[in-house]
Amino acid sequence: MADFAVVGAGAIGAYLGARLAAAGFDVTLIARGAHLEAMRARGLRVIEADGSTLAVAPACTDDLAAAGTAETIFVTVKAHGLPAIAPALGALLHERTTLVFAQNGVPWWFFSGRRRLETVDPGGVIAASIPLRHVMGCVVYPATSLVEPGVVRHLEGNRLSLGEPDGVRSDRARAIAAALTRAGFKAPVQTRLRQEIWLKLIGNAALNPVSALTRATLGELLADPGTRELVRTLMLEVEAVGRATGIEPDLPVDRRLDGAARVGEHRTSMLQDVEAGRPLEVEALVGAVVELAGQLRVPVPALDVVYRLTRRLDASVARERPLEVPRRAG
Q: Which positions are annotated as active-site residues?
């Protein structure tokens, strides 16, 4: 039985899998397309921020069923891709399987069944397919990019925060954290992971859509007084929604803005997706906050406008995207 599987081994998933494989763990990567073919043919190469490289050759496949041999499955597909695979993923589960959801935005399990967001779990298909007892949350901080098929660049960050939905410091959480630590990550087990998820979301829900709409880097966005003030307004609205759920911000918005500005000429993940013609994480990053605000009756007028514009952008990108020929898994 494999130690780990990574479902959706793109830039972040492949980086995670590479580090685990280099640490001696048995890892299976589930990927597709040219990236999969390159990893099969030449292995996986990681270029670290300091210029050093890491080369590994983990098992790679496009057959989701191969993940069923692992006790721990990291799910790194983007949130909008999860509903389509949730039934098949749920069918793989055995008694000891842990699914670690390492995704941006508001995760489908955030309210543990007490509240459902249509934007992240349309029709409730994910919750119906995956019992909560198999779920572990993960907040991802490493910044990575796919330089070319089979080659990942690690830009910065090495923290992966873990947490059970009920906040318990479980034995399985400690075991996964220990494996990640052995692989070179900082992997704290958190008792209040929802708080950490929302605090990261404050930046993502504001900076990602505005950068995608304007095609601007973080440095460009925050050097311009007009877009800086818009981002500030959006952050305050996301903070207000979080407060309505009991989550208090840890940093003043202006300090967040200053920190983001220091990152400089960085393209957000959503801007990279626009440039690559990929689907955008609109619903998990922005739509979920707008939907929750409506349920809680928290006004978010600026975020609502940005949400509508970003959905329109996503539709425009989809029209320009080349049609993919379906491939049989196996």
A: 200
- Residue by residue, DSSP assigns 256-300 as HHHHHHHH-SPPPHHHHHHHHTPPP-HIIIIIHHHHHHHHHT---
What is the spatial distance between Cα 253 and Cα 256, in angstroms, rounded to a whole number? 5
CA nearest neighbour of 102 among 174, 187, 171, 36 = 187
Query: 290 exposed, middle or buried (CB, 10 Å; 0-12, 13-18, 19+)?
Result: buried
Judged against a pLDDT cut of 50, whether residue 327 lies above it is answered with: no
Residues forming a β-bridge with 6: 29, 74
User: Is pLDDT above 80 for 325?
Assistant: no
How would you list the strands of the sheet with 27-30, edge to edge?
A: 59-61, 27-30, 4-7, 72-75, 98-102, 135-140, 160-163
Residue 118's contacts (CB-CB under 8 Å, 6 or more residues apart) are: 291
> How confident is the model over 248-270, as pLDDT tens digits?
988 899 999 998 888 878 889 89
Q: In the structure encoding, which two tokens stand for residue 146, read together?
A: 């796919």
Q: Position of tokens 């990279």?
A: 272
Angle between helices 288-296 and 301-320 (to 10 degrees): 150
Domains contained in the chain, CATH given: 4-191 (3.40.50.720), 195-320 (1.10.1040.10)
Q: What is the pLDDT of residues 152-204, one digit of tens each?
A: 999 888 999 999 999 999 999 999 999 999 999 999 999 999 999 999 999 99
Using CA atoms, how far residue 103 sits from 12, 79, 136, 204, 320, in Å, is: 10, 6, 11, 12, 25
- Global pTM value: 0.91
Q: How far apart are CA 234 and CA 205, in angstroms?
A: 8
Bridge-based pairing of strands 98-102 and 135-140 is parallel
Which pLDDT band, with edges at 50, 70 and 90, does 320 fall under? Answer: confident
